[in-house]
Amino acid sequence: MDGILFPYVDPTSRATDLPFPLDNTPLSSVPNDTLASLLYKAPALHDFGQTTVVRLSQTLVLKGGGNILPPEAAALRLVASSSSSQPDGTIRAPRVHRAFQIPDDTKYFGTMGYLVMDYIPGRPLDTCWASLPRHQQTDIARQVAAMVLAMQRVQLPAGALGPIGNGHANGNGNINRNSNDNDNSNINSNSNDNDNEGRNWPSRGRFFTHYSAGPFGNPDVPAFRFTELVLVHQDISPRNLVLDGAGQVWLVDWADAGAYPRGFETAALRAQASFPDFHALVLERLERDFLVERQLGAIEYGWLTAALA
């Protein structure tokens, strides 16, 4: 680690003229346990907290950790499958070549997750943003805003609600309200707590009443009312963007992606503490839902802090 708040990066991990463990080795010939062992042997592109990304070859990386879960791979595969409707490649993201889990009782979720993905050559945007000329910063913000809009046009899979692969909504992203089997009326924050896990996402009325946080604790902030879900990334920041040699940015780290109301993307952008000029440039190019941003801000304490008390 370079410091408490900074990831460790092996300086050889972005080399173009050095060998890597799986150079000239077909991925199909490498078993999962061998891949898992490389998480601690290959040069680290990123090592911070529970997440490590290492360089496997000139074209592949391995991401692993206790918080690497199946929905991240599902979101990336959804983006890849929608590429045929994006001839200009608006959403630039790494492709997933393999994803697997290995049980591990020492981890919070009881598993270690692994993703083999494309290596994206280029510069992490957080390392060069401040030195870029203003016209290039503006162009990058335009690209990012275009990616956000393209994500919102992606056809969601049936049942997408929250992390991809979970939830109860139809494939068009509209919340089902007329089906007994897929009743999502509880997506609103005044729902009851007695139904199946996940059906009353994103907030539990009793939770916020108990902690006096959010819409039920603040009469000036109305309850959530959501009628549409779209694909959102929820962690767009220079630390999750790679600037390639052609001046295009690639969006990485899809761990928080899923099917959520479109206002969640701008709320997440607004909440980012670092690189305020970057986020301001992107936000001014997007339609904002200030009510949703206010609602999410109102429940922030209960959602992130009181829940862990």
From TrEMBL:
Biased composition (Low complexity): 171-193
Gene3D superfamilies, per the entry: Transferase(Phosphotransferase) domain 1
Region (Disordered): 165-201
Keywords, in A-Z order: Transferase
Residue stretches making up the Aminoglycoside phosphotransferase domain: 228-290
PANTHER family linked: AMINOGLYCOSIDE PHOSPHOTRANSFERASE DOMAIN-CONTAINING PROTEIN, AMINOGLYCOSIDE PHOSPHOTRANSFERASE-RELATED-RELATED
Protein known as: Phosphotransferase family protein
UniProt organism field: Aspergillus indologenus CBS 114.80
